[in-house]
Amino acid sequence: METIYKPLVVNTINDLADKDFTNSAPLVEGFLPSEGAFLFCGSSKIGKSWLALYLALRVSTGEKFWDLDVKKTSVLYLCLEDGERRLQDRLFSIASEYPDNFYYSTEATTIDTTLIPQLEDQMKEHPDIGLIIIDTLVAIRCKSATPNGNVFYDDYRIIKTLQEFALKHNNTVLLIHHVRKTKSSDPFEDISGSNGLHAASDGAFVMRRENAEVKLYTRHRDMAEHVYTIDFNKAECIWHLIDDGTPAEEEFKTDPDLRKVIEYMNEHDEYYGLAQEFCDMLGLKKKAQSISGKLMNRKYQLEKMGILFEKNKTRAGSVITLLRINNDIPVEADDESEEEQIEDLPYEILDVEEAEPVTMCDEVTTLSGVENVTNRCDEPGA
C-alpha cells in the first residue's frame, strides 16, 4: 500500500528575505508578547499568582502595567489551585473594577485528555480572548508518562501542544510553574522539570529572591533578555517595578548597523529614499535587504523610540522612510507630504507598491513575589 504523506512546502531563502511579516503589538510593551506559550516560574509562595492576577486585570482593562503600554483584550484565567473564595479575596484586594471580558474557571482537565477541546470551546464562545493564564502547569500535566519513560519528550509535548493552540488563535498562553529548591548560576536552569519545558516554550520568566531584592529574569525567542527588580507592596498586594535593567533600546546599541541608524536619526529628522543608498551613505556592513528587513521587524520598537519606519517595494529596490516623530501622539500617514517626497525621487522608483503595515512585538518580562506576605495579603499564592 502506498504511503500517503504531506509533501514539503519548499521556498528559496531569497524569497524569505524579501517577505514582510505582520507582527501584532505585544500585550504588554517590553513584557509579554501577543502570541505564543510562555512559562512564568518562581518558588512556592513567592507571589506568582498575585502577579498573574494583576497582569490579567490590566490586560482586560487596557490600563498600563507598571508604566508599560497594554493592548486591551479579553482574558481567560484558569485558577486551578485555589477556589472561588480565595480568588475573590485577591480580586477585592487589588482590583478597582471587575471587567466583563475577564473570564475564569477553577476546574479544567489535563492536556492529555480534553483540555484543548475545552479551550477551543472558549475560543468559539469568546473569540476575542488574547491571553490565557493557567495557574498552574502541574494541574494540567499528563497523568501518565510517555511509554518509553522519556521525560524530556513528555515535557516538550505538553508545551508544544499549548504553543500550537496559541499560534492557531493568535493569542498568548502563560503557564504558572515552580522552580527547584536549589539555585543555579543561570536562573532558567532552576525551572522544575526537564529542559523540554523551556525548549518548547517561546520564552520564560523566572522570579527569585536575591539577598534583599526580588529579581525577575526574562528570556524569549525574539527579544533581548531582561532583568527586572521588583517589590511587593503588602498594603496594595501589588508588585511594583523598582528598576528595569535592560531598556528597549539595548538591542539597537549592540547591533553595529542598527546603532548607526539610530545615531543618524538622532541628528536628522527624516530620511526618504532607496534603502541601498541609505546603507551606502552610512557605510553599513549588511546588505540593504537585510537592513530594511531588520528595521521592518523592529517597527514597533522604533515607534516607541520616536521613529516612524515604512518600507515600499519598487522596481528600483526598496524605498524606506525614517521619520522622527513625537511618540506620545498617534502618527497617521500624510498623503500630501508623501507625494511631495516622491516627486523628488528618480523616475525609476515612482512605481511604489503598498507594503503591508507591520507592528513589531516588544520585549517581555515578569514579576516576582514575597514570601510570608501579611496584612491583606495573608496568602501570596503559588
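Above is the first protein from milestone M3; the second protein from the same milestone is given next.
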Amino acid sequence: MISPVILCGGSGTRLWPLSRELYPKQFLRLGESPVTLLQGTLLRMEGVDELLPPVAVCNEAHRFVVAEQIRAAGSGGTIILEPTGKNTAPAVALAALHACRSGQDPILLVLPADHLVRDVAAFQEAMAQGRLLAEEGRLVTFGIVPTHAETGFGYIRAGAKLSTGFVVDSFVEKPEAEVAQRYVDSGQYYWNSGMFMFRASIFLKELESLCPDVLTHAEAAMNRQEQDRDFLRVDEAEFSRCPSISVDYAVMEKTSRAVIVPLDAGWNDVGSWAALWETGAKDEQDNLLKGDVLAEDCSGCYLQSESRLVAALGVTDHVIVETADAVLVAHRDRVQDVKKIVARLSRQGRQEVLQHRRVNRPWGFYETVDSAERFQVKRITVNPGASLSSQMHHHRAEHWIVVKGTARVTCGEDVRTLSENQSTYIPLGVPHRLENPGMIPLELIEVQSGSYLGEDDIVRFDDDYGRE
C-alpha cells in the first residue's frame, strides 16, 4: 500500500503579495490550474493502485484551510498538526510513526504541497518506478531532469545505474552559475525536488541510526497525541525538542540506501514570480497577463490584477502584482529578493505580511471593506449550517445588516431570525452568536465601532471548531 504524506508547511514569502503568512502559496490557484497547489498535489495521485487516504502535516494556523481544501478535493485522511515548524524530517517522522501505529507498514510517498506538475502520467510512471525500489528497502528521492543551469536549487549526482533509477552519489548545495552549467552539461546531475518514497519502518530505522534525536522526541510527542475533531495533535513540549532538520540532512545524505529516480514531468516549485512567469501562456510580446490588465508597449512582463485595473506602459522584464491591499513592482531578475520586502513588513508589524483583506475562517470568510479610527466595515459570508463562536468583545459594538440569506442571531438572552434587509445591534460586552440556519450562504455587512477593533478582542465561550 502507498500512503501519501503531504507536507503543507512553508510561508511562500517570495510570492508576496499574493501569498501571505496565514494563506501561503500552497493554498492558492497559480498558473493555469483550476485548483490550488495542495489540491493539485492530491489529484495527481488519482488512479494510483493501492492508495491509502492521505496524511497531511500542517501547522495550527493553517489547519482549517487544509481540512477544507482536502475535503473539496474529494479526499479524506488524517491531518497531523505540528505544534511548531521543525523542517521536514520531524514532520515525516510523525507521519511514519502514525502509519506504523495504524497496524500497517505502507510505502510513504512524501510530497510538498506547493509544487506544480504538468505531466501527471509521467509523474505517476516515476512513482511506479520509485515504488519498486522502495519495496526493496531503498530510500528513494526524485530528481528533476534539469532544463537549464538553475542556481536556486540543490542538485543530486547520480551514481551507479540500477534496474530503475540510480544509486545516489552525492547531494550538492546550490551552485554558482558556471558550476550549475557544468552539472547540466554532464547529464549526471538532477535538481533536488524534496519528494521521497520509502517504507515507513525503513525510514524510521534509518532515522534512529542517523539522527536519533528526531525520532526520540517525535515518538514521545506521538505517545501523547490527542484527537481534536478532524485533527491529530501531538505533544508540544516533546515535539519542540526535535532538531530543526530536513530529510536530506537527517537521513538521505548519510544513508547507504539512497537512490534517485529521474522525473521529467513539467515540474515547477513555483518558488518566485519569475518561475510562475515561466509556467504560463504568454502573448506575442512575451507577457503573461492575469486579471484586469492593460499592457501597452510592454515585453517579458508578469502582470496580475486581483481587484482593479492595472495598466502598464513601456515596461520590460518586470513583475507587477496587485491585490486589494498591496502592489508589488519588481524587475524579473530581482524577484528572489521579495522576501526582503516581507522581512521589512514583518519588522514593522504590518498586517499585509500576515493575511489578505479576505480572511478565511472554518465557518466561511470575512473581507475588510473600509476602516479608520474607531470604525471598521466588513463583509461576512457564513456557509450553510455553519456558526460563529459564542463570543463577546470588550472594546467594540457591532451592527449587522443581512444582505442575503437568513441569520439566526443570539444577543444575550434574545434569539431572533433575520432575513434580507433586516439588521440588529450587538452592544459592547454582550455575549452573542451568529448562525446560518439556511441552505444558501449568509451574507451580511458588519459595522464595528469602538476604541479597539483588533481580532484579538474576542472572548469565546463556545466554539464548534475548538478554537480557544
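Note on the second protein: The chain is about 25% helix and 35% strand.
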